[in-house]
Amino acid sequence: MNDEVRALIDYRMKGACDALEEATILLQRKKARGALNRVYYAMFYAVPALLASRQLSASKHSGRLRRFIENL
User: Fold this and answer.
1) How many whole angstroms separate alpha carbon 33 and alpha carbon 57?
2) Which of 14, 55, 60 is nearest to 71 (CA)?
3) Running DSSP on this structure, what letter comes out for residue 71?
């Protein structure tokens, strides 16, 4: 894995971790709908990181989901 791919994975996982942290804060404030939204986005950021680690990509949301399911 080259440095560019590693940087991309790190960037996307940072977004996922940030979203999970935000979800935790929202849950503590009893804001379940907002927390669920942030968990969704944590997955939205983590999936392309996983795909990149396998040298795969997709430009659209539906493509990301399809590639993720195909490569579980």
Assistant:
1) 29
2) 55
3) T
Alpha-carbon distance 2 to 12, whole Å? Answer: 16
CB 65 within 8 A of CB 57: no
pLDDT in tens, 46-67: 999 999 998 887 878 878 888 8
Distance between CA 26 and CA 36 in Å, rounded? 9
Structural domain containing residue 17: 3-70
Q: How many domains does the chain have?
A: 1
Cβ atoms of residues 19 and 46 within 8 Å: no
Write down the number of H helices and E strands in the chain: 3, 0
**How far apart, in whole angstroms, are the C-alpha atoms of residue 43 and residue 48?**
9
Tell me the pTM: 0.82
